[in-house]
Amino acid sequence: MGASDLERGRAAYAERRWDVCVEALSAADAGEPLGFEDLKLLGLSLYMTGHDAESNDVVERSHRLAMSDERWADAAEAAFWFAFILINAGETARGGAWLTRSRAIAAEHDVPGSIAALPDAAEARGMVMAGRTDEGLALASSCARTGELEGNRNLEVLGRLTVGWALLRQGLREEALASYDEVMLTVSSSDQVYPTVAGLAYCAVISACMSVLDLSRAREWTGVLSEWCDAQSGLVPYRGQCLVHRSQLKAMQGDWVGALDEARAACARVGGNAIGDAWYQLGEVHRLQGAYQEAEDAYRRANSHGRQPEPGLALMRLAQGRVTESVTTFRRLYAESDRIDRADILSGYVEAMLVAGNLADAEVAVEELGEKPEHLTLVHRARAAEGRGAVLLARDDPAAALAQFRSACETWRLLDMPYDAARVRVRIGDACRLLGDESSATLEYDAAREVFARLGARPALERLDQGSPGPDGSLTAREVQVLRLVAAGHTNRAIAGELVLSEKTVARHLSNIYTKLGIGSRSAATAYAYDHRLV
After folding, report:
1. Are 168 and 213 in contact (CB under 8 A)?
2. What torsion, rounded to 10 degrees, do the Cα atoms 485, 491, 495, 496 define?
3. What residues form DSSP beta bridges with 17?
4. Distance from C-alpha of 308 to C-alpha of 341, rounded to nearest angstrom
5. What is the spatial distance between Cα 515 and Cα 524, in angstroms, rounded to a whole number?
6. Angle between helices 195-211 and 215-230 (to 10 degrees)
């Protein structure tokens, strides 16, 4: 019975039927204690089926067995993998102790270099997390080279993952993505990579692609991860992280119902550090739909799990009319120049500054967003063009703004991102209206309204129905400036002198303000300004 179960368990492991492997090897172990190699298979299979505590017990047991048999390389490796599991579960103190044990065994018993270097891979990751990016990059590169030279694919993959992360922290996007491509090549072409490492690699690479908005790579690797997950039975880890990525991509492609379903499933299934990402993504979908209370709760849960709820929460504050609060948060985020999601921060910062009427600050951020165009992804290019257009519109240059908006809209269409395209079409309508082309403006507004209604983008739809929205969904930055001066009691002539405009242009802005806000007097405009904390 035991021998049959043993062979069945080994075959199930090779076929990635983790649940069957656990059942068979556990039965074999009950009859006669497993040897080191089979304990390793059982420990990995228990982890892949989500039985973390049982996996820890088996890995620790394999370590003790290797020590008693004086199999020093196996003992050092088992100690490392126990540390790996603990650290990924957030138990850094215990994990660190096991890393120290792995190092000590390797040093005392002349363990081969690729095994001895495994703790260095974990240390390199910790260095990057602690801000010691250059040191972490050097150590991770050494690990990757050692793994490649000695044929230890697990060490090679772990090293290259940290190399990519460190390069991203240094702003070297192309070099980072090249490192991640090498990771994926190794994972997809080698059966020597442990499934725990392969799953980690898929999730880390997709997360990195999403962070730099390389949607082409993210979509490709998310599809591969889905196939990888589907090819295994009993798999629990990674499916949750896969759901987060699928939710992100579905939201971008306009399937908000599907995105919400995937995000909710991820919150229920994902574990470890990724749980914060799952709650943040759920908050993002709720924010776009206008379910602000649900979004608030999701952002708070994300924050409690270590995931900063930004820039989503600050964007929601902006949409809620809490302008000062949003601007304060975005100024803080803008000062954190080493964030991997810098492009997201810059885009939100531009919107917040335009709403607050700080055109100069918005312009500086737009310039940074569009730096080094040869290295920009299509998403970055679209955001930069949209930002430039918004600034130009605020500076009363609708013709130049229109060209930027049309460029951004074409890119959003190319990327199959309907919400973003519709949002820009509203801005195209604004530019057309300022150029006196009311019929074209109406066509753009109608096209955007149709998309918003189909997606369930209630806030965007309501703002559009109330009047053509600007960067915050209601007024352009220039209109905010005019409104503030009206609220301060200035006449049109005084406003024209203050903003270096003609009285005719001021009157046009005031007319647009009345139309958008559904009001008809300067006193009503003043009341609106105070109610929305614009003064």
Report:
1. no
2. 160
3. 233
4. 12
5. 12
6. 160
Per-residue pLDDT tens, the chain, 535 aa: give them: 445 899 999 999 999 999 999 999 999 999 999 999 999 999 999 999 988 889 999 999 999 999 999 999 999 999 999 999 888 877 889 999 999 999 999 999 989 899 999 999 999 999 999 999 999 999 999 999 999 999 999 999 999 999 999 999 898 988 999 999 999 999 988 889 999 999 989 988 998 888 888 888 888 888 888 888 889 998 887 766 778 888 999 999 999 999 999 999 899 877 666 789 999 999 999 999 999 999 999 999 999 999 999 999 999 999 988 989 999 999 999 999 888 788 899 999 999 998 888 889 999 999 998 887 666 788 889 999 999 999 999 888 999 999 999 999 999 999 999 999 999 999 999 899 888 898 999 899 999 999 999 999 999 988 787 654 443 445 776 788 889 899 989 999 999 888 877 888 888 888 888 888 888 889 888 888 887 767 7
Tokens 């579905």, residue located: 250
Can you list the alpha helix ranges (DSSP code H) found in 290-357? 292-304, 312-319, 323-335, 342-355
Q: Which helix (H) or strand (E) holds 95?
A: helix 92-108
How far apart, in whole angstroms, are the C-alpha atoms of residue 420 and residue 252? 8
Whole-number Å distance between alpha carbons of 472 and 315: 9
State the Cα–Cα distance between residues 333 and 339, nearest whole angstrom. 9
Identify the CA nearest to 430 among candidates 418, 447, 442. 442
Instruction: Return all residues near 251 (Cβ < 8 A) that are at least 6 apart.
Output: 259, 281, 284, 285, 288
| Tokens at 508, concatenated | 């046009």
Pick left, alpha or beta for residue 50 (phi over 0 → left; psi -120 to 50 → alpha; otherwise beta): left
Nearest 5 degrees, angle CA 234-CA 42-CA 197? 70
305-308 own/partner pairs: CB under 8 Å, 24+ apart: 305/273, 305/275, 305/276, 305/279, 306/273, 306/276, 307/276, 307/277, 307/279, 307/280
- Respond yes or no on whether the N-terminal peptide bond of residue 398 is cis (omega within 30° of 0): no
Cβ neighbours, 10 Å, residue 286:
23
d(CA 465, CA 480) in angstroms, rounded, equals 19
What single-letter DSSP state applies at residue 274? Answer: G
Domains of the chain, CATH where assigned: 238-309 (1.25.40.10), 475-535 (1.10.10.10)
What's the CA angle centered on 502, arms 438 and 532, to 5 degrees?
Answer: 70
Spatial distance between the Cα atoms of 92 and 125, rounded to a whole number of angstroms: 12
Please choose, from the candidates 335, 310, 307, the residue with its C-alpha nearest in 3D space to the C-alpha of residue 325. 310
Residue 378 contacts by C-beta under 8 Å, 6 or more apart in sequence? 215, 411, 414, 415
